[in-house]
Amino acid sequence: MIFCATVDDVAYDGYSTVTNLARLLDFYDGHGVRATFFVVPRCGRRNLGMRRGYVALLRRALEQGHEIAQHGLVHDRFEFGIPPEMVLALPHEGPARERLAKERRAIMADLSVEKIRRRLAEGRAILQEAIGHPVSGFRSPCLQVCDNLFTALAAEKYAWDSSLYLQPGGWDILNGVTATPAAITRRVFQKIQHPGTLPILPLTTEYTWYLSGSRYEVTLNLALADLKACARARIPFVPIAHVSPILKGGRGLGLKLYETL
């Protein structure tokens, strides 16, 4: 069984800072853990190469054995597909819900293979130029996907994708929904693989989003159950964290949960 630590929204304003990224690097290095950092290539009008603090930290991460992967182009909610309902239901996703309700037809028309390939290639080029290292993995912002995304990823010769998920229960907790956690099995893992040659490494769920004391026990119990289920199924356990939210919960609970795992 493989424990794959992943961190989203690197260099995305509002959910990432240079200081918090440095803290996370220190945390993983202190525990001897190698992580995959999903980086947003462009924030506002600034390409990653213009953000020297991030570039220096990401090059340090590469030197220390971490992996850098791509997280969209500008982190628009609909640049590579449609996010799942449990993500759109999050309180801060109100504008995305309204946009989808008003502009669904135009959004879908903008998701052709050709347009997605252009966005993938542009974002990848920005990252590779900034860090001086090949980028071969991808995760879509907000787990947005469509069939054309996987076709485009394969055409652009990405080595793997991690935009799908196994456990909606983490987002149910965030949304205050009482639900039975999904069963994680090898059969489910195999079913989630997309037809074709592109390997899918689905993330498990989000456990550390501004984690509070009131949610800590139920979240930890879900995480431990998911970890054991992945071990039984002999599939990777892939928790997702976000640069600043994992550090801005109550009393460092996000890092405490990861230390426990």
Major sheet description: 4 strands, parallel
Strand segment count:
8
Q: Given the structure, what is the number of helices?
A: 10
Elements, N to C (H/E): EHEEEHEHHHEHEHHHEH
> Strand percentage, roughly?
5-15%
Which strand order do you get reading across the main beta sheet? 5-2-1-8
Provide an overview of this structure.
Helix content is 44%, strand content 10%. With 261 residues, the protein is an alpha/beta fold. The strands form 3 sheets. Strands 5-2-1-8 form a 4-stranded parallel β-sheet. Strands 3-4 form a two-stranded antiparallel ribbon. Strands 6-7 form a two-stranded parallel sheet. A hairpin with a 2-residue loop joins β3 and β4. α1 runs parallel beside α2 and α5 packs across α6. It starts with a strand and ends with a helix. The model has no long low-confidence stretch (mean pLDDT 96).
Features:
globular, 10 helices, alpha/beta, four-stranded parallel beta sheet, 10% strand, 44% helix, single chain
Task: Give the SSE map.
Elements lengths: L4 E6 L7 H13 L4 E5 L2 E2 L2 E2 L4 H12 L3 E4 L14 H4 L5 H16 L3 H19 L5 E2 L8 H9 L4 E2 L7 H6 L11 H7 L20 H21 L6 E3 L10 H8 L1
Please provide a brief summary of the model:
Helix content is 44%, strand content 10%. The chain contains 10 helices and 8 strands. The protein has helices at residues 18-30, 52-63, 85-88, 94-109, 113-131, 147-155, 169-174, 186-192, 213-233, 253-260, and strands at 5-10, 35-39, 42-43, 46-47, 67-70, 137-138, 160-161, 240-242.
